[in-house]
Amino acid sequence: MASTSILHFRSLFLFVLVASLRYGAAAGDVDGGEGFCSAEPSSECSGGPPLYWKATHPTLAPAHLQDLPGFTRSVVKKDHALITPESHVFGPLPDWINTLGAYLISPSIGAHFTMYLANMQDGSKSALPPKDVERLVFVLQGSISLSVGTGTTHSLSVDSYAYLPANIKHSMISDESTTLVIFERSATEDFHPDLIVGSTDKQPLLETPGEVFQLRKLLPTSLPYDFNIHIMDFQPGEYLNVKEVHYNQHGLLLLEGQGIYRLGDSWYPVQAGDTIWMAPFVPQWYAALGKTRTRYLLYKDVNRNPLI
């Protein structure tokens, strides 16, 4: 009788173990198999999600907090803000066709620029920014056709971008369901920057003396451009060596990875999909955690006297 009970227990144990392993494999398939591919992220990883997938399909950890009424990781203070995806509020963008937008950073928070997401459906069309306002568009998901002036057309896919000087006539039509992150600010008078169309992978890695992260700049560093967009990559465990304090404002979108951001005297766990606003002179520092690299997109005003 005892041996029969032991055999029955062993059979039950093996059944539960096999079922658990099968469930784990299936769960891994659902989230793109994260943790089973190499530590170096790649959209080529078999069965993996597209590039920057988490920036447009973010998750929270621990997972059960997603369903907690009123929960948010968003924080707004006088010199910085963390805006997380569960608190995004989308509404129709003025004069855009079939497009919903969520403003993440604006002058009402203390910034001198706006940063917003635009969710376009197949065939959606953009509107022009206000007079004397310059614009940078970065594609997070999908693709668009950008028409400039009287007929020049550019095709922009994920990781591509366009800088559009103030008052240049242009329109964007989505070729599929598309998400853009857009920066706009009032242009400085007496400067005449050029239209720029490019992609992150075509920009060279730049020197970062005293630091370990990799840096690319999407715009020229010449005087006509009063802001730039930096793409910064950190491998797991890498961090900023300097706790920065400077007059420049920042708007940041985490494209990949996770880590800890220090802003002032506060420390925030952050992940792909999170947005950060940093006012002038707020102390700031970042460390990358997890098993894959961190990549973030960073707005920074440049080339102007702070009195302007």
TrEMBL record:
Residues 1-27 form the signal peptide. Residues 231-297 form the Cupin type-2 domain. Keywords: Signal. InterPro entries: Cupin_2 (IPR013096), RmlC-like_jellyroll (IPR014710), RmlC_Cupin_sf (IPR011051), UGHY (IPR017627), UGlyAH_cupin_C (IPR044697). It comes from the Eukaryota. Transmembrane segments: none annotated. Pfam families: Cupin_2 (PF07883). Gene3D superfamilies: Jelly Rolls. This is Cupin type-2 domain-containing protein. It comes from Urochloa decumbens.
